Amino acid sequence: xxxxxxxxxxxxxxxxxxxxxxxxxxxxxxxxxxxxxxxxxxxxxxxxxxxxxxxxxxxxxxxxxxxxxxxxxxxxxxxxxxxxxxxxxxxxxxxxxxxxxxxxxxxxxxxxxxxxxxxxxxxxxxxxxxxxxxxxxxxxxxxxxxxxxxxxxxxxxxxxxxxxxxxxxxxxxxxxxxxxxxxxxxxxxxxxxxxxxxxxxxxxxxxxxxxxxxxxxxxxxxxxxxxxxxxxxxxxxx
Length: 238
Fold this sequence. Notes:
Blueprint: E1 5-6, H1 23-48, E2 58-60, E3 75-81, E4 85-86, E5 94-100, E6 103-112, H2 116-131, E7 134-139, E8 148-160, E9 169-180, E10 185-197, H3 203-236
Parallel strand pairs: 1-6, 2-6, 3-7, 3-8, 4-8, 5-8
Antiparallel strand pairs: 5-6, 8-9, 9-10
Helix pairs in contact: 1-3, 2-3
């Protein structure tokens, strides 16, 4: 497997993919965030001296919002979230792109503002907190007396040109396990995979696709945790 920088992959030869609902707002937020960071960099340059344009870096910050599913149950138990496990090559501030199955590259001049593992953890935590469907949820080590613990492994967080596609898709893959803390029993496990097509090959459009994929991933994991934990509670206390 090789890794190298690139400015952008060749422009698409097929029509643009129709944007999903909310994609325009997501791209606008990401574009504004990236522009603000770029302006901050330029302001610093006026003090420190000129910087070679090729060394300028735009940082992209994702802000996924999750609407709770009305079908989610109410959970009368507490949950802690462990830090994610992830290989260093996956959990990187560099934005990865896979133009071919056996080749990984990175977008030149673009970085994530936070590590992918932090974005995944924050997304799930926020989805559960905002849902109001669980008695308490917090990161491991926060001091709450957790009944269950969510352990996740980040397997993929990359842009991918699948099957020779002209446009990339944002791919997020997470393996999750729900543990019952008193006996450390694994009560449920599942792998979650999201693939969200980008509207164009530009980095800002790829980042917008990642925001949608991250929101879907957070929603699916949060709902699964609530249902799985309640199922175990029912079996343990029929």
